[in-house]
Amino acid sequence: MKVIVLVAIVAVAAAQYPAPSYKQEYKYEPRPYNFAWEVKDDPSYNDYAHQQDTDAYGKGTGSYRVLLPDGRVQTVTYTTDPEGGYVADVQYSGEYKAYPAYKAPSYPQPKY
User: Fold this and answer.
1) Strand 73-81 versus strand 60-67 pairing type
2) Which of 29, 46, 50, 77 could potentially form a cystine with 64 if both were Cys, beta carbons 3.0 to 4.6 Å apart?
3) InterPro entries, from UniProt (predicted)?
4) Per-residue pLDDT tens for 49-99?
5) Torsion from C-alpha of 27, 30, 31, 32, nearest 10 degrees
6) Which among 70, 66, 64 is positioned nearest to 95, based on CA atoms?
7) Which is nearest to 95 in space by CA: 76, 68, 65?
């Protein structure tokens, strides 16, 4: 009984909206491009970059790097193509640095 009601609701909803009168064809040729950017700001500890190149066949290569909070640098090198998708190689460089133990600030004692 529930299945019949569900099928009837779907059939009514489909009947309310007719099919579009135009064809949805998205045919375009991949266009080659390349870009690169980088940020390095020592006072704020921001250090990262990204670059990518693609060809006329939709295949691309690129990499990006990020300075992690523990002091290491993560570098991702990747390839993309319509058949193989996104394939990444992740590497880490540098040495892990643990955060120092938290020490509460000392304030002078109030005098009464």
Assistant:
1) antiparallel
2) 50
3) Insect_cuticle (IPR000618), Insect_Cuticle_Struc_Prot (IPR051217)
4) 999 999 988 899 999 999 988 889 999 999 998 888 899 999 999 998 887
5) 180
6) 70
7) 68
Over the chain, what HEC string results? Answer: CHHHHHHHHHHHHHHHCCCCCCCCCCCCCCCCEEEEEEEEEHHHCEEEEEEEEECCCCCEEEEEEEECCCCCEEEEEEEEECCCEEEEEEEEECCCCCCCCCCCCCCCCCCC
**How many Å apart are CA 79 and CA 98, to the nearest integer?**
33
CA distances from 13 to 1, 5, 19 (A): 19, 12, 12
Amino acid at 57: Y
